Amino acid sequence: MTVSLSSVLSSYGYNSTSTTKTDASAAVSAAMAKLAKAESTTTTTQSTSGTQVTISAAALAAATAKEDNEKDASVLAKEVRAALDSQYTAGTKKGDADLTELSGRALAIVALNKDGTFSAAETRAAKEALREDTRQSFVSAMGSGDAYSMIANYSKQLASQYDAMSPEERQARGWSEDFRNTNADFATNFEMPSLFDQI
């Protein structure tokens, strides 16, 4: 599916000659979110010069996560609050908000709810989303291959995820530095058992 980025931006009221930098940034963010939702595997946009650019959903998610990890926690909390309120204004029942486009840190901020910005239902939903993400990660890692090597690879993946996470996400998931080090050590020191050991 080929989508014109400029047409998507215009649907959010973006006009390059009259829109402020802040409004433009908001329009771009909204447009990219719309593109990611519309095309779950890849997004193809066309620039004004006619160049085709394909952006995967995973790449968009990674970019969002990186951007969110660099924000002040209070700023991100306000952005998430505004995004959820926008869904409610559009008719979504409270407690049924779509959290699929939130980064891990954004989910963690909702789950921790340190300043009481979010409702109990939103907090529960965010915690469940984080648990489901962990479950899906495990299922994906354990999909095929030798059980021992899969566990070692998953342990390595967990350590890498920990290193890339914000402090809020580590706290919300209950992942400590000991958890990270245990997984890293297992992945590093893993040795395939002999046939005798397997028997």
Overview of this structure, please?
The protein has 199 residues and is mainly alpha-helical. It has helices at residues 5-11, 21-38, 57-69, 73-89, 104-112, 120-141, 147-164, 167-173, 177-189, 195-198; strands spanning 2-4, 42-46, 52-56. It folds into 2 domains: 2-62, no CATH class; 71-189, no CATH class. It has 10 helices and 3 strands, in the order βααββαααααααα. Residues 1-25, 31-43 and 194-199 have low confidence and may be disordered.
Given the structure, what is the number of helices? 10
Q: What average pLDDT do the residues reach?
A: 78
Strand content: 5-15%
Oligomer category:
single chain
Distance between the termini: 52 Å
* Helix and strand element order: EHHEEHHHHHHHH
Helix content, binned percent: 55-70%
Tally of DSSP β-strands: 3
Biggest sheet overview: 3 strands, mixed
Strand neighbour order, sheet with most strands: 1-2-3
User: What is the approximate shape?
Assistant: globular
Which structural class do the helices and strands define? mainly alpha
* Rounded Rg: 20 Å
Number of domains: 2
- Unreliably modeled segments: 1-25, 31-43, 194-199
Describe the structure concisely.
This protein is mainly alpha-helical and 199 residues long.
Write out key terms for the chains shown.
3-stranded mixed sheet; 199 residues; globular; disordered C terminus; mainly alpha; 3 strands
Task: Give the SSE map.
Blueprint: E1 2-4, H1 5-11, H2 21-38, E2 42-46, E3 52-56, H3 57-69, H4 73-89, H5 104-112, H6 120-141, H7 147-164, H8 167-173, H9 177-189, H10 195-198
Parallel strand pairs: 1-2
Antiparallel strand pairs: 2-3
Helix pairs in contact: 1-2, 5-6, 5-8, 7-9
